[in-house]
Amino acid sequence: MPERPPPRYVGVRTYQDRLGRYSFRYPTGWQELDLEDRDGARFSPNPDDPETSFTGWAIELEQAVVAADLEVLRAGVNEGIAQLADCHVEAEVDTVIGNLIRFERELTFRDGDAIRKRKFWMLYVDKWLIMLTWQGSSEEEFNYWLPMANYSFATFQLPSALWFATDPDVNKRPGATPGPEE
Question: 12-165 belongs to which CATH class?
Fold first, then answer.
């Protein structure tokens, strides 16, 4: 069987969240698919294989998250992952910057008869949960398109206002501008 040629960029586009909470870049050849019940977007390199896709979405939380919430949130992340059938976590990194918390996981799991592979970032940013997910319909599809999906992760951006909202000292400094809710 001939070797599959590597994926190629022909251009990039920028997805901007409708409320300006985040943005990321993605290959122009990827098709936007319906993202049911979520406020965000889903892009697939092959619309005939919707299980292979990059997704970004956000929800508003009832209260702002702070760094001290790390252990409770980690327990919830691990509990959610444990609900996936035959799940194997291959990599995990937890990052805290000020009051921004990011959980990064790479895992395989069974979905019916298929073994899927997924990488996600779960970001708690002030009063928002922002989720970025790259999933392959198989481990082979995950790995084949991963360089392009990694570009989307690498170009993810938060606006300055959200970065300031996660700074625990921003309103304690003399002359600091109060946040929008003050």
Answer: alpha beta
